[in-house]
Design goal:
Elements (H helix, E strand, L loop, with lengths): L3 E5 L5 E5 L2 E8 L3 E4 L2 E3 L47 E5 L2 E8 L3 E7 L8 E3 L2 E3 L6 E4 L5 E4 L10 E3 L10 E6 L2 E7 L5 E8 L2 E9 L9 E9 L2 H14 L6 H7 L3 H4 L3 E6 L3 H6 L11 H16 L5 E5 L6 H9 L3 E7 L2 E2 L10 H6 L1 H4 L16 E6 L5 E6 L2 H19 L3 E5 L17 H17 L3 E5 L11 E3 L27 H7 L8 H6 L4 E3 L13 H11 L4 E5 L3 H22 L4 E6 L6 E6 L4 E5 L6 E3 L2 E3 L3 E5 L3
Parallel strand pairs: 19-20, 19-29, 20-21, 21-25, 25-26, 26-27, 27-28
Antiparallel strand pairs: 1-2, 2-3, 3-10, 4-5, 4-6, 6-7, 7-8, 8-18, 9-17, 11-12, 11-14, 13-16, 14-15, 15-18, 16-17, 22-24, 23-24, 30-31, 31-32, 32-35, 33-34
Helix pairs in contact: 9-10, 13-14
């Protein structure tokens, strides 16, 4: 086992040594360092380990360093007198940074300042010097493993550290030469990750955001090093997630809500009436109509056909606000779990309501009275914007975003009563966990952290009413409270154009955008970072506009990802498309649901790449099940004597 030692140098650079040789260098820029009771500008960033290194302290001695004598201390700085002798302290733009070694190959970086100090944002002075052969781990949605010299078109340059649209987990990692460096953002609610370049190589940097225009509170990063690769790094981060109380396995949750026994491994179905997209949602001619009894029966006929065809384990997701107990009870008698689409972030501004199709205004009624007093307010006093709707004139108009405090009150009023009327088992909450916004309203002011706490309270309220809870994408700040997420397998930047408004569109051949092949379904770039932390706690699906069946020729490829990640498929389609999609959906169900059920309660312990082309991949779960995926289009692969055909995967059960 290798020994890792950290050495903060006088100029603020942190050098990580492996067995006495430099492995990682985190550049410190523009820092003053503490010498006695003074802060000085250091110069010795190229120092090497001393012969008397102290492995028990986790940090190298630096008694040979002589600070410059012409730098005077900042008169406002008062260093703590009880700082550990092996710690190192710096000043950066009036922020005090303390590097504190900790057990288990860790180093903590604490950032403190006057809580009332004004701040826009502060780029963390530390950035790892990249190497061309590095692999960068970014937990955006399920996760990416990016070569340092890669250039992934459209990859986000800024990722919010506490929202599913940014980082699903608050860290980044680097793999280098059989070792890894984890940089965990412990205080993540006012932070972003900036994906920058240094010498044309990817080089992430943490950005500290203001809390309501001020520094607000102490910030913290934690550096951890170790042997191995992705699996070992993710195991180290999982310990941090557990410290925060975010790990809650299905084996515990099921005691609170037995319905989760039917969720685990279940495929997700969104079945749409043929007029749903144009007539009801995204046409300027949208009509405010209630589904007919004939339409309801056609949906039920598809559900019955699915059951007769062997699709016994389904989450039946309902979008229609006119859903009633009659249809829900019919679905539940088939043995299916039911869930209802709900949203508490968007409200139609009253001053444009006359331009919005009546069906959309009707859908907004539970939230309509929250405008304008319940809308989140920006610092400049403007009302925050939300999802655009197509008006009767063919133009798109912004809605406004509801403040999370007001959203909780609305959900508490609406959701339990709706469940009582309809008998629906669960709730899918759209948008809420994609990001978190401050609210500058005098009536309901919120920091980002406050907003997250209100989101958590909403999920807790739903759980207290024994609902199965789902969210759009996934963010670990709520991972102990939601049971499934949609979109985790479908990073927004590489979906088909306007996927959020094309929930049941089908694409063939040249209609499939290049980024689907180059990024979305590219095993060389994707990695199950989320699963290595939260599998067995949260179930993940594709996005409804990027579903398992939206590109029938690629359904089998999507199924390989699902099997490898231990997740079931999601199918979103029109009733009239069932006959032509049925063969694809049945094959997909048979490929993914038994596999996801077999490992649904288990932790994913390992993810390994077994070849240099990154086309042979293996996952291993805590119940001993292994999944080996062969993404190679031509050659078979043999694993322990078992043949894995090209473009296929196999489950291998323990003997």
């Amino acid at each position: 086992m290798n020994e890792y030692i950290y050495r903060p140098t006088p100029d603020g650079t942190i050098v990580v040594y492996r067995n006495g040789s430099e492995l990682f260098r985190l550049r410190g820029e523009g820092l003053l360092w503490q010498s006695g009771n003074e802060y000085r500008r250091g110069t010795d960033s190229k120092s090497t380990p001393n012969s008397d290194m102290q492995p028990d302290s986790g940090i190298l001695p630096d008694s040979d360093i002589r600070p410059d004598s012409d730098i005077r201390p900042d008169s406002d700085i008062r260093p703590d007198s009880d700082i550990r002798p092996e710690s190192r302290r710096y000043i950066y733009n009036s922020v005090e940074i303390t590097a504190v070694p900790a057990p288990e190959n860790m180093l903590t970086l604490r950032f403190t300042s006057d809580p009332d100090a004004e701040l826009g944002e502060l780029a963390c002075p530390y950035q790892v010097e990249p190497r061309a052969d590095d692999i960068l781990l970014i937990p955006h949605c399920e996760g990416f493993a990016l070569p340092a010299d890669s250039d992934v078109a459209g990859f986000p340059e800024r990722l919010y550290a506490a929202g599913g649209g940014g980082l699903s987990m608050a860290y980044y990692g680097i793999l280098r030469g059989g070792s890894w460096l984890l940089v965990a953002i412990i205080t993540n609610r006012d932070a972003q990750l900036s994906i920058e370049r240094s010498n044309k190589l990817l080089a992430p940097r943490v950005i500290w955001l203001a809390q309501k225009g001020r520094w607000g509170y102490a910030r913290e990063l934690r550096l951890v090093c170790g042997d191995g690769g992705i699996s070992e790094l993710c195991a180290a981060y999982r310990l941090i997630a557990a410290e925060k109380g975010l790990i809650k396995p299905f084996s515990e949750r099921i005691n609170e809500n037995p319905l989760l026994g039917r969720l685990v491994g279940a495929a997700n179905v969104w079945l749409w009436n043929d007029d749903a997209m144009d007539k009801l949602l995204y046409s300027e001619r949208a009509q405010n109509t209630v589904p007919t009894s004939a339409q309801i029966e056609r949906r039920l006929d598809v559900a019955r056909d699915m059951l007769a065809s062997g699709m016994e384990r389904l989450l039946w997701s309902l979008f229609d606000e006119h859903t009633d107990a009659y249809e829900v009870d019919k679905i539940k008698r088939l043995g299916y779990l039911t869930s209802y689409y709900d949203i508490y972030t968007d409200v139609i501004p009253h001053d444009i309501a006359h331009l919005i199709p009546p069906t959309r205004v009707d859908r907004c009624q539970p939230r309509y009275d929250l405008w304008p007093d319940g809308v989140a307010v920006s610092r400049d006093g403007s009302l925050q914007r939300a999802w655009q709707l197509k008006g009767t004139d063919g133009r798109f108009y912004y809605q406004n975003r509801i403040c999370d405090a007001c959203a909780l009150d609305c959900a508490a009023r609406e959701a339990p009563a709706h469940r009582e009327r309809t008998h629906i088992d669960g709730r899918f909450i759209d948008v809420s966990w994609v990001t978190s916004n401050e609210c500058w309203s005098d009536r309901h002011p919120l920091t980002r952290s406050d907003a997250i706490e209100y989101k958590r309270r909403m999920l807790q309220m739903l759980r207290e009413h024994n609902m199965v809870v789902g969210t759009e994408i996934g963010c670990e700040d709520g991972a102990d409270l939601f049971d499934y997420s949609e979109g985790m397998l479908s990073p927004p930047f590489c979906r088909q154009y306007d996927a959020g408004r094309r929930m049941c569109s089908l694409y063939y051949n040249d209609e499939i955008e290049p980024r689907i092949h180059s990024v979305m379904l590219n095993p060389k770039l994707r990695a199950p970072l989320w699963e290595l932390c939260y599998h067995g706690c949260v179930q993940s699906y594709w996005y409804w506009g990027d579903s398992s069946c939206c590109m029938p020729e690629l359904t089998r490829l999507r199924d390989i990802f699902c099997r490898l990640y231990g997740q079931p498929g999601l199918y979103s389609f029109r009733v009239s498309d069932w006959p032509r999609l049925k063969p694809y959906i049945l094959a997909s169900y048979r490929a993914t649901v038994p596999a996801a059920t077999a490992v649904g309660f288990a932790r994913m312990e390992r993810f390994d790449v077994l070849d240099s082309e990154r086309l042979i991949q293996r996952t291993r779960f805590s119940n001993g099940v292994e999944v080996v995926a062969n993404f190679n289009q031509a050659d078979a692969y043999y694993y322990r004597g078992q043949k894995i055909a090209p473009m296929s995967s196999e489950l291998i059960f323990p003997e």
